[in-house]
Amino acid sequence: MGENGFRSTRRTKIVATIGPATCSEEMLETLATSGMNVARLNMCHGTHDWHTAVINRIRKLNKLKGFSVAIMLDTEGSEVHTSELEQPLKAEVGEEFVLTIRDPKTVEGSAIGVSYDAFVDDVQVGDLVVVDGGMVSLEVKQKMGPDVKVEVVDPGIVLSRANLTFRRNGHLVRARNSMLPVLSSKDWLDIDFAIRQNVDFIAVSFVKSADVIKNLKSYLNSRADKVIEVIAKVESHDSVPNIEEIVEASDAVMVARGDLGAQIPLEDVPSVQKEVVVRCRQAGKAVIVASHLLQSMIEYPTPTRAEVADIADVVRQRADALMLSGESAAGAYPEKAIGVLRAVATRIEEWCRQEKHGQIVLPQLTDRLDGRVSEELCASAAQMANNLNARAIFVYTRRGYMANFLSRCRPDCPIFAFTDKQDVRQRLNLRWGVMPFRLDFGADPEENVDRTFALLKRRDLVQKGDLVVVVSDIRPPNEDVVRSVQIRHVP
Ligand SMILES: Nc1ncnc2c1ncn2[C@@H]1O[C@H](COP(=O)(O)OP(=O)(O)OP(=O)(O)O)[C@@H](O)[C@H]1O
Ligand SMILES: CC(=O)C(=O)O
Ligand SMILES: [K+]
Ligand SMILES: [Mg+2]
Q1: Boundaries of each Pyruvate kinase barrel domain copy (predicted)?
Q2: E strand segments, 235-390
Q3: What is the mean pLDDT of the chain?
């Protein structure tokens, strides 16, 4: 059996966007078996019924096949985008068509709807309308009431609900969107849907500052039965100066390079990516690098060498996760694309361990003694595991904190995390290096450890005689938390 997410010891996690190419039961299982750790549902597309069906299929797979694929719902956000198209529209140089705030069906000729009513007021003749960060560029020729006539200057394909940005004299025009809320009324309906569906993560598009994250987190705290982690997407021009507070407020961050590259100069994207990855790791927050990792594989079965180098760079930066968008949602080779991520990640991780690459100074996270003890314990356990060349770290954790602290240290060996809750297990599946398992804890800690040794031996993840580091912070009922680190040999 190949890598299947829970047997593998790949450290960098894989998020895959689910779309028409991958929404069937069969394809979802193929992706899970190939290593998908988190399934992303983009609320820019599909109905609630469509998303419900996908979620149910993933839940069924987790239950019947023992996967722990987590579910991420990604909000649409209220940036300006095109309407739903019956089919992708091929735009050739010099061709003219109409962008409209009316129903495009009521317009004669070739028309595309635009989601933002003030579009026609804001736009000026000569402006450049950039579709999906440069897939197509259109020049504004004429304003005609609710319609705007445009001419194609850079050809390409316009997809449904493509994102639109505007440039005037070579500069991004920003005034227009600043009045739009980060979370629209539709986004709030989608968030309520996410709560009803008990998803694991909500990713917020076009975050500008920490405020929206704090607001959403308090909303979720008051409504949701279980923890739903909030992922801030760094893709808005306005988010860049506020990265520190955004990281602080969020549970995880996504570098959404697709839209980010349309909002800031392309050449600035790599340094913003690096900054976000490092800050997240220092702050103990998960970080996902997304978009265009394997763009060419939407159409072709092999990646470009430059794409492989880009993936290698993300892995070397020790981000928690790599994310596929169109490659898995609508591409011709979703399984092969995951295979490339897996192979490159595994190889580069090995290289990082050999070269002792990617070590950074980790600041203290909290002043509270309780938290300090956990942090220090995990840092020492990770250090010990490296120095002793341990086969694995075992961690017993109810809420996942200790597993998260261990992951932040990016130890050389895998972290096998045992929790008694499936939702904690799923959330841990986004964390670098953590292989999460569900286990009903018995009263006797020693017996728990023995059971997990037996479990992982059966799966060939450890062998008799292996040296392992065992970390525990299980709180017995009505007792003080007992935290320990032990060095053991697998019996
Ligand atoms: N649920 C879906 N139904 C139909 N098509 C989808 C769906 N999800 C994704 N796609 C297709 O896959 C392409 C890429 O997917 P993705 O959702 O990652 O877009 P993105 O532009 O990267 O994300 P965002 O819209 O958040 O910026 C989309 O343009 C769309 O054509
Ligand atoms: C993933 C996403 O939203 C982007 O790259 O724009
Ligand atoms: K989105
Ligand atoms: Mg985006």
Answers
A1: 10-338
A2: 252-256, 286-290, 321-324
A3: 92
Our answer on whether the CB atom of 235 is closer than 6 Å to any ligand 2 atom is yes
Q: ipTM of this complex > 0.85?
A: yes
Cα-based angle 141, 146, 151 (whole degrees, multiple of 5): 25
- Between β-strands 136-144 and 128-131, what pairing exists: parallel, antiparallel or unpaired? antiparallel
Instruction: Determine which residue's CA is closest to atom 3 belonging to ligand 2.
Output: 256
Ligand 4 centroid–CA 210 distance in Å is: 18
Q: pLDDT tier at 84 (50, 70, 90 boundaries)?
A: confident
Closest CA to 429 of 1, 57, 16: 16
Burial class (CB in 10 A: 0-12, 13-18, 19+), 111: buried
Among all bound ligands, the one having the nearest atom to the CA of 261 is 2
In three-state secondary structure terms, 266 is: helix
Q: How confident is the model at residue 329 (pLDDT cuts 50, 70, 90)?
A: very high
Residue 475: band (very low, low, confident or very high) from pLDDT cuts 50, 70, 90: low
Q: Which domains does the chain have, with CATH numbers?
A: 13-78+181-355 (3.20.20.60), 89-178 (2.40.33.10), 369-489 (3.40.1380.20)
